[in-house]
């Protein structure tokens, strides 16, 4: 018989007042064996003044850290394309499930989109593609083009459900005619095109605004040290610093663009990249913060950047799960390193790569597009399969709403955890048991305890009123 956390036989219930009123915590559970998949438990935990020999996770809202912008996915062009092929009724139901917070909806609060194509589009495009040998320094031929067939209409439906959702945009490449190799893959931005490319990004933000879509932030370049994707573009740190301080920052200022500028957007093995740019005072004044992926390095590198420049923000913007996936491994890896690890190292966001793919991990570009990137959901016409990343995002996004603040919670052995205080004065604690066996433990808050347990590999989100 499988052991399932918080069944009536296993739940330890107590009935003592929490302060001046009864304090209970709702519990949402995902088990590694998939016997529970982001399910609200029928019986709540109850806090009491009591002693217990079990380990204690101490939650303290008197010590706070960074604010949270949100949790979510990359809405790639491919994801939007698959959604647009669904029937309108089924697409509407899916968007409600993904972006609403009531009932069993998961409440995605942050999206990342690409400026032009990413490698998870069906084909490569920019907003100003030209025949070889031609240029358009005035950007007279700029057009949102392909985005109007998929990304823009999907975003409009999302905004109808959640008009406050934050959107981050990231370019994979400048138009080929602006690049040293005149190709969508690799190459660098020509020095003589720094100015026109800054104006290109301004026009993008303005064009999206004209569609009713506000771009909250933009990263300067996706994975600037990885020119092997299609599309992609190499941008070393000195060039990014020069582009920001000489072109992009002044162009935003001149056009009264309030979209945040975020640098780096690559792996945690090179914290020196964003630090070196932030060390340039002229560049720094235009920069909101730095973004990270975790295909190399350790998540603790984010704290290294925070310590060097505590006045600047940090964001976690991409991590994939490889098809066909391994539920137990993938849930543990991403909850531990990203949901918990990134936020405990000052990140304001956690974004999974990517929202959706079809059963064959399509679409993607040729010459370097990811052919093993498994979406948070798999879309097969109108049929939806929810994959591990869906549950990773759900455990945080539904409850840790934008404007929440990370608060102190003690680390206890293999019980990795993170805690938040929400704008509506609730406390949210996310815990995963990374030990090989069942772990009993206490949650202590303001002198009262709730005793519970988690199976190996299981994750729970606990929510209670402050």
UniProtKB/TrEMBL annotation:
Keywords: Glycosidase, Hydrolase, Signal. Residues 68-400 form the Glycosyl hydrolase family 30 TIM-barrel domain. Gene3D superfamilies: Glycosidases, Golgi alpha-mannosidase II. It comes from the Bacteria. Pfam families: Glyco_hydro_30, Glyco_hydro_30C. One of its GO terms (biological process) is glucosylceramide catabolic process. One of its GO terms (molecular function) is glucosylceramidase activity. Residues 403-462 form the Glycosyl hydrolase family 30 beta sandwich domain. GO terms for cellular component: membrane. InterPro entries: GH, GH30_C, Glyco_hydro_30, Glyco_hydro_30_TIM-barrel, Glyco_hydro_b. Belongs to the glycosyl hydrolase 30 family. This is Glucosylceramidase. It comes from Mucilaginibacter arboris.
């Amino acid at each position: 018989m499988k052991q399932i956390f918080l069944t009536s036989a296993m739940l330890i219930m107590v009935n003592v007042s929490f302060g001046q009123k009864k304090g209970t915590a709702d519990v949402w559970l995902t088990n590694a064996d998939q016997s529970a998949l982001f399910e609200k438990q029928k019986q709540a935990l109850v806090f009491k003044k009591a002693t217990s020999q079990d380990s204690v996770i101490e939650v303290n809202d008197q010590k706070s850290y960074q604010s949270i912008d949100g949790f979510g996915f990359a809405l790639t062009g491919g994801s939007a394309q698959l959604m647009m092929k669904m029937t309108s009724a089924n697409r509407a139901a899916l968007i409600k499930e993904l972006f609403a917070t009531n009932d069993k909806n998961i409440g995605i609060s942050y999206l990342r989109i690409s400026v032009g194509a990413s490698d998870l589009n069906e084909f490569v495009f920019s907003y100003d593609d030209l025949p070889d040998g031609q240029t358009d320094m005035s950007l007279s031929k700029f057009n949102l083009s392909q985005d109007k067939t998929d990304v823009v209409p999907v975003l409009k439906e999302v905004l109808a459900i959640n008009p406050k959702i934050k959107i981050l945009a990231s370019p994979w490449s400048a138009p080929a005619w602006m690049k040293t190799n005149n190709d969508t893959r690799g190459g660098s931005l020509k020095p003589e095109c720094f100015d026109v490319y800054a104006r290109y990004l301004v026009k993008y933000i303005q064009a999206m605004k004209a569609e009713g879509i506000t771009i909250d932030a933009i990263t300067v370049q996706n994975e600037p040290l990885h020119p092997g994707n299609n599309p992609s573009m190499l941008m070393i740190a000195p060039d990014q610093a020069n582009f920001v301080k000489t072109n992009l920052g002044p162009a935003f200022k001149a056009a009264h663009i309030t979209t945040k500028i975020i640098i780096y957007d690559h792996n945690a093995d090179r914290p020196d990249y964003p630090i070196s740019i932030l060390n340039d005072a002229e560049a720094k004044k235009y920069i909101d913060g730095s973004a990270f992926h975790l295909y190399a390095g350790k998540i603790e590198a984010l704290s290294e950047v925070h310590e060097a420049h505590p006045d600047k923000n940090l964001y976690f913007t991409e991590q994939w799960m490889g098809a066909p996936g391994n539920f137990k491994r993938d849930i543990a890896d991403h909850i531990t390193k990203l949901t918990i690890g990134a936020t405990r190292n000052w990140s304001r966001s956690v974004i999974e790569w990517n929202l959706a793919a079809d059963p064959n991990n399509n679409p993607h570009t040729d010459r370097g597009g990811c052919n093993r990137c498994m979406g948070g959901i798999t879309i097969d016409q109108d049929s939806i399969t929810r994959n591990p990343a869906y549950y990773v995002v759900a455990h945080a996004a539904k409850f840790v709403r934008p404007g929440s603040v990370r608060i102190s919670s003690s680390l206890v052995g293999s019980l990795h955890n993170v805690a938040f205080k929400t704008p509506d004065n609730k406390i949210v604690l996310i815990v995963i048991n990374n030990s090989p066996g069942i772990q009993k433990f206490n949650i202590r808050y303001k002198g009262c305890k709730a005793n519970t347990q988690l199976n190996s590999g299981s994750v729970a989100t606990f929510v209670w009123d402050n």
